Amino acid sequence: MELLASASRVLRTYPLGETSLIAVLLTRERGLLRAVAKGARRPQSAVRAMLEPGAALDAVLYLRPRGLHLVKELSFRGPLPRPASDLEALALRLAPLELVLLTTQEGEAPAGLFDLLEDAFAADAAAGGIGWAAFFAFEAALLRVHGLGFELAHCGLCGRSLDPSRLRFLPGEAQFACPACGGEGLDLAPASADCLNAISLVRPSALAGRPLPAPVRRQVGRVLHLALSRHLPGYRLPRSLGMLGPARDMTAKE
Hints:
By secondary structure, this protein is of the alpha+beta class. It has helices at residues 87-103, 113-127, 131-145, 179-182, 190-199, 214-231, 239-242, 245-251, and strands at residues 2-16, 20-27, 31-37, 56-63, 69-76, 168-170, 175-177, 186-187. It has 2 domains: 2-76, CATH 2.40.50.140; 87-251, Recombination protein O, C-terminal domain (de novo design (two linked rop proteins)). The protein is built from 8 helices and 8 strands, in the order E-E-E-E-E-H-H-H-E-E-H-E-H-H-H-H.
């Protein structure tokens, strides 16, 4: 078996048998991997506390050609995320982990994905919570990692230059259009257009702690939800966000 030592981030775990866990890890070198941590559910296991969602680890894995890999060693690469201050902060911390898991296949390592997730947790550490602006920047960057960044300067149908104050979003095509081509598209408020322009240019940590007015949050969240639904196979609204009212607004009137 091949031995892999890699910086990793825990996406989730689930039980295996009576005493073990399957850890789903995003690794820097090999992308998403599933590995068995034998005995990790035992009360005396030192590994158990390391496998919290979002934990930053240095992992040593035995890679099998087929099936689940095996955990050999784990050590903390950084502190565990501090306790979330409220339900919203917890949901926004878990949602990037879910999105990576939903949109990444076993063994996939899209360029920039690991660094993007690291940056989202840098935003969490800097501001005591990722926050909606940083989370939306994560979603926009996830589209870019998959080669699907927003085009906000020109109409996606006719190519004309777009007036930032008159943007219209077409859910079926997941593109922005001019008023002439927009048809029954979603008209964006100027503040929402400004937010989309901002998040399309920066990484999540640059927006750590930045507040968003509720109307902007709802409209930008809906646009990103529709774009991710259209472009990324496997995407669905993260369960963590489904607990929150603003997340339900994203899918309203689809």
